[in-house]
């Protein structure tokens, strides 16, 4: 399938999920994530869900940061410069929902790409080689290309992967790992 075909199909599949299913599947994914990936002492880039797009609920990761000893860096999409930067998460008062429906911090301590150890990556669909389909703006691919070579890129998906995305571009950055409610995909 092409990226456009994937985007259309998986957007529709998400629309079919009830709020109860999203909550349950998100919980399964996050439980698996925390059992699979060592967060201790690390700085984790965590996307927050765009509710209207029925994304995986990652808010529980914010609450576990002290208990499990990790720092959370939250991305901010700069649509003017077409890139992302991160603020350290300190408290819920930092957060606002942007005009694009993205929960983002409005202030905080800047966190550079070099400081980030693990990036949780949103996606609509992924393939067996670790390539993903997002919303098509390229924010994550541009950001991932600036991370350290040892940074772990982890996709979170409600659905299983497909065999191949046909139209992969030179600048597309593959994931290292994808966690679904049903399996852990090492790529």
Short description:
22% of the residues lie in helices and 24% in strands. It is an alpha/beta fold.
Structure notes:
The chain is α/β, with parallel strands linked by helices. The protein has one domain (about 5-185): NagB/RpiA/CoA transferase-like (Rossmann fold, 3-Layer(aba) Sandwich), CATH 3.40.50. The protein has helices at about 5-15, 20-35, 60-65, 140-145; strands spanning about 45, 70-80, 85-90, 95, 105, 110, 120, 125, 130-135, 150-155, 175-180, 185. The chain has an 8-stranded mixed sheet. It has a two-stranded antiparallel ribbon with strand order 4-5. Strands 8-9 form a two-stranded antiparallel ribbon. A hairpin with a 4-residue loop joins strand 11 and strand 12.
What layout of secondary structure does this protein have?
Elements: H1 3-15, H2 19-36, E1 43-45, H3 59-63, E2 71-78, E3 83-88, E4 95-97, E5 103-105, E6 110-111, E7 118-121, E8 125-126, E9 132-133, H4 139-144, E10 152-156, E11 177-179, E12 184-186
Parallel strand pairs: 1-2, 1-7, 7-10, 10-11
Antiparallel strand pairs: 2-3, 3-6, 4-5, 8-9, 11-12
């Amino acid at each position: 399938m092409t990226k456009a075909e994937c985007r259309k199909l998986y957007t529709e599949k998400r629309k079919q999920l009830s709020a109860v299913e999203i909550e349950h599947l998100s919980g399964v994914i996050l439980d698996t994530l925390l059992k699979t990936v060592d967060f201790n002492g690390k700085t984790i880039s965590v996307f927050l869900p765009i509710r209207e797009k029925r994304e995986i609920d990652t808010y529980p990761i914010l609450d576990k940061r002290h208990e499990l000893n990790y720092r959370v860096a939250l991305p901010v999409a700069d649509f003017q410069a077409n890139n992302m930067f991160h603020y350290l998460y300190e408290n819920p008062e930092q957060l606002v929902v942007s005009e694009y429906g993205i929960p983002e911090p409005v202030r905080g301590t800047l966190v550079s790409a070099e400081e980030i150890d693990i990036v949780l990556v949103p996606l609509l669909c992924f393939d067996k080689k670790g390539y993903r389909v997002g919303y098509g703006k390229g924010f994550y691919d541009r950001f991932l290309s600036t991370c350290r070579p040892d940074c772990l890129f982890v996709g979170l998906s409600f659905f299983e992967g497909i065999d191949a995305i046909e139209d992969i571009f030179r600048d597309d950055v593959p994931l290292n790992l994808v966690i679904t409610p049903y399996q852990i995909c090492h790529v």
